[in-house]
Design brief:
The termini are far apart. Helix 1 runs antiparallel to helix 11. The chain has 12 helices and 2 strands; from the N terminus they run ααααβαααααβααα. The chain is 74% helix and 2% strand.
């Protein structure tokens, strides 16, 4: 019984680390830019399918992951173009991108399910390291790069754009540029997360992006709740903690006997409970955590 619990916790930690990249990506649009971007449900499997396509051709896994990231950047630009250039509402722009990506993902490999068990991946490349350690290293590299980016002028202006576009214009800068950067970087990280999930589970499926936005929001909200008394923690850190906590909660629920078919329902309920808890806990003090900080 103890071995089963340890196995569940290990698996939950590994998936939580993968989802932490998803959460960091969504933080950029949801928390920083205060925009709802549903295209992540298309860019998550996009990263997986791009990785699969290049892996089947014998491309090095690290390069395939970078190409997945680049694919996410391109998808993010499409959402930005629909939103800012074609004047389509951000929510609808994301839905349209997600819808287009469903067909594009199938085109990349020509089928909806691609097994990858017999192909090289990032974990086999570093087989002398535990899978969890490889994931920790990747997540920390991304976290430190994102944290460094926010210390640069471009990163600072991205944050200011989410708070006050007029201020950015008064500085002689174009806020649309930083909105584009936010969309692209967000979807790039989501796509990278998808490529890691493909390697972790050993296959790619066209439905793997379903409810990823809810998973990301659950991670962000849980991270904000756990770290509510330590607001100095970076957004990336809270996203990582939230993603890991969310997966542990889900893993323990299944271990306790929850029907896996009910997991999506439980995920939605977790989000509702934490939102209500946050809104009640800080009522009259400041804006609810469901809003941008």
């Amino acid at each position: 019984m103890l071995e089963g619990l340890i196995s569940v916790l290990q698996s939950s930690l590994e998936v939580g680390l993968i989802f932490s990249l998803l959460a960091i990506g969504v933080v950029l649009t949801y928390k920083v830019l205060d925009l709802a971007d549903l295209s992540v449900e298309g860019t998550f499997p996009l990263g997986a399918f791009i990785f699969a396509a290049f892996t089947l051709k014998g491309v090095n896994p690290i390069l395939a992951m970078l190409l997945s990231f680049a694919g996410g950047l391109a998808a993010g630009f499409v959402t930005y173009f629909l939103y800012k250039r074609l004047k389509i509402a951000a929510l609808l722009a994301g839905i349209l991108t997600m819808t287009m990506l469903y067909s594009i993902n199938l085109r990349i490999t020509g089928k909806s399910n691609v097994p990858l068990f017999d192909y090289e991946n990032i974990f086999s490349n570093f087989s002398y390291l535990p899978k969890m350690l490889v994931l920790i290293i990747i997540v920390l590299i991304v976290k430190f790069l994102i944290d460094y980016f926010f210390k640069t002028e471009q990163g600072y202006l991205l944050i200011v754009t989410g708070d006050n576009e007029s201020l950015v214009r008064s500085l002689g800068k174009n806020p649309d540029l930083y909105i584009m950067i936010g969309f692209m970087l967000s979807n790039g990280l989501v796509s990278l997360s998808g490529s890691l999930m493909a390697q972790h589970q050993g296959f790619v499926d066209s439905q793997m992006g379903t409810t990823m936005i809810v998973t990301a929001l659950a991670s962000i909200i849980i991270g904000d709740t756990f770290m509510r008394n330590n607001r100095r923690l970076k957004l990336s850190t809270r996203a990582i903690i939230g993603a890991i906590a969310y997966r542990i909660i889900s893993g323990l629920a299944i271990y306790a006997g929850l029907n896996p078919n009910d997991l999506k329902l439980i995920t939605a309920l977790i989000v509702i409970v934490f939102i209500v808890y946050n809104n009640i806990g800080i009522l009259g003090k400041k804006k609810p955590l469901i809003k941008k900080e």
